[in-house]
Amino acid sequence: MPTLGTLPTLGSLPARNPELELTFVGQCSATAQAAEVTGVFSVTPEKLLEEGAPAALADGVLVLIADAVPFRLRGRITTVLEVLLRRMSRDRSAGLIVSAPPSPRQPYPQSIVDLAERLGIPLLATTAPVERWQGVHEDIQRFRLDFAERRAAQLASLVQELPAQLADQRAMQRIADWLARALDVQVMVSDPDRVLVASPATAAEELAQAIIRQSVDGNAPDTSSGPHTQLISLGPSSAADTVLAVARRTPFDDADLRLLRHAAKLLGLVDQARREYRAASDASRAARNAAVELLLDGEVSKARRVMRNLAPGLLDPETARVFVVETSPTRRDAAMRRCETVTGNCALVVADWRRHDRILVIHPVRPGEADDRVALELTRLVSAVGAGASLGGSGIYSMSLLAHALHEATTAQRFALYQPDSVALSVQDTDLVSLLPAHDAQVWARRLLQPLMQTETQWEPLRETLPTALAYPYTVAARRLDLHRNTVTRRVARAAELLHMDFAALTDRITVGLALELVTHRELPEPPAGSLESDAPTLRGLLGGPQIRAWAETLLRSARADRRGLLTTATAWLRSDAHLESTARELGLSEATVRSHIRALEGHLSRDLSSLTGMRDLMFALHLMTGAPQLPDASRELCAAA
Fold it and tell me: What is the rounded (10 degree) CA torsion for 550, 552, 554, 556?
């Protein structure tokens, strides 16, 4: 049987397979011809006489009396056929076929013809040999299975087009595009004022006439000529004036119409949500704008009253951070919706009424609560938006001083324009090196690096090479320094030999990297003579101050609250010299899990843990708060300096 685009019907079956030589007997209405055929049940006259009519038949089945009824049996079989017709009517069978040779005589007794007309059972005759009917039932079943799978795939695909939020501005267009592809139609959704979506873009011109004719005539246009058009209202109430119009050159079958109705229901939901969301959003944004203006004027109590019903408890904290997101004016509305989504109920997001390219975000912070959650989400958002977007943030301010916080965030945003990631967050007391006791740090660093500083000819190339070589693979370092890789390798090996250190170990790289930063970038006036020999400070001593411990506690506070055990993973990772495979093996986790934990830590710490500086801050903070991983002891440092 040919596989056409629609399910087989009583009227289409002869066209699908002309070899069946199938014709209708008597009058047959268009409704009967449109009935779907679900299969063929074949039976011989002898079996009907012997066993009687089947007790039950499948819905839509076509009953075939496979052999011609001998003239001598006509009287006896009429009674059985009457019972068969009544059961076919009860079970909603598609029709009855009798095999009969070409003849001017009626293939059915007149009483059967009359009964069939009363019961609405179509009668057919076939002159084809029985052999040509073999396999027809199986072909219909295969076709119905294929058709059902295609329709199921279409419905699944349609459901996939549903947005996460019904008010998604692009949802209606995506559904229209899908419908145009699935049924090869032109699609337009419109209300009395405008065309909402069209697919393809030229569909609006093609379908406008159909909408006009419907509004004038009050019904769908005649589809007997020209394009076949369907007009479906998207809703009986709020969206009653919104119409789905589709057209194509070929007629729509029942299955197509069902799919159209499904799509219309989804489009109606999206349209209703769009209308309701717009009304609610306008009111909500007006209230939020008023609350932000009151906060910036220092009217905290009034702002809380404005937001009490809209976002209960949001403005209860006494402190907050302010963020400024800048993007192009044409992309601000989309960026603002994304800001609202990623911050959830944690922040107050408004469009800056003074600038068409700026969004203000106020994040209330409760005492003792990690305050970097919103900052992390906004940083990711700016990275996703790409070129033209930037983010500035303030420190934590009292609610009554948010005007000052906004000034700081605006200043940071201007600075962010010159940063590689277009982000500048005002984070207080997070620069570890600036918190170290300056004099003791210089003494420690110079003592540690003294073996490298014996002569200027030795120190100059090592000072040039080591900071980069310790932070990057040697090939990358060589490219950055414009040196040959062998030169970088030779210099690093010489430094490791002089310092009695193993630069394959992360702790040694971090220790020497810190000392190099202190000597080359944070150099202070020469310490007093003899200070290198007496009371030599150690790395552990430098990190023992209360301000450093407070820094470590602040840095790890958010990560410690994470239930995934990120700090346990971090400790093992650092102990394994930042190798994922050995870390995963030690913890019994997958490498993907370890990698996701490290990425999560980057968000909590606002650090790049692929950099030596990021790993340094993590290692020192972990050591101070948990005692692990271990740092080089004083004897090793003295050995390096000896």
Answer: -150
* Mean pLDDT in residue range 213-223: 47
> Rounded CA gap, 255 and 472, in Å?
62
Q: DSSP class of residue 131?
A: G
| Rounded Cα–Cα distance for residues 468 and 488 (Å) | 10
Mean pLDDT value across residues 54-71: 79
* Bond before 537 cis per omega within 30 degrees: no
pLDDT at 89: 87
State the Cα–Cα distance between residues 4 and 252, nearest whole angstrom. 14
Q: Are strands 228-233 and 348-351 parallel, antiparallel or unpaired?
A: unpaired
* Six-digit token string for 425: 């967050």
Give me the mean pLDDT over the 578-585 stretch: 94
CA 522 to chain CA centroid, nearest Å: 46
Closest CA to 444 of 548, 522, 549, 553: 522
Distance CA 593, CA 185 (A): 47
pLDDT at 426: 63
Point out which residues pair with 425 in neighbouring strands: 393
Please state which of the ranges 248-262, 328-342, 449-463 shows the lowest mean pLDDT: 248-262
- Mean pLDDT: which of 22-36, 69-83, 179-193, 612-626 is highest? 612-626
**Taking the model in full, what pTM does it have?**
0.39
Q: What pLDDT shows up at residue 429?
A: 40
Angstrom distance (rounded) from CA 196 to CA 52: 61
Question: Nearest CA to 25 among 92, 115, 88?
Answer: 115
User: Can you tell me the mean pLDDT for 171-188?
Assistant: 85
As a whole number of angstroms, the distance between CA 312 and CA 331 comes to 30
Give the Cβ contact number of residue 91 at 10 Å: 15
Distance CA 154, CA 164 (A): 19
- In three state form, how does the secondary structure of 335-368 look? HHHHHHHHHCCCCEEEECCCCCCEEEEEEEECCC
Q: How many helices (H) and strands (E) does the chain have?
A: 26, 15
User: Taking the CA atoms of the chain, what radius of gyration do you get in angstroms?
Assistant: 40
H runs (alpha helix) in 472-565: 474-481, 485-499, 506-520, 539-542, 546-560
Contact 265, 45 (CB under 8 A): no
- The region of weakest confidence among 27-36, 167-176, 573-582, 630-639 is 630-639
Coil, strand or helix at 461 = helix
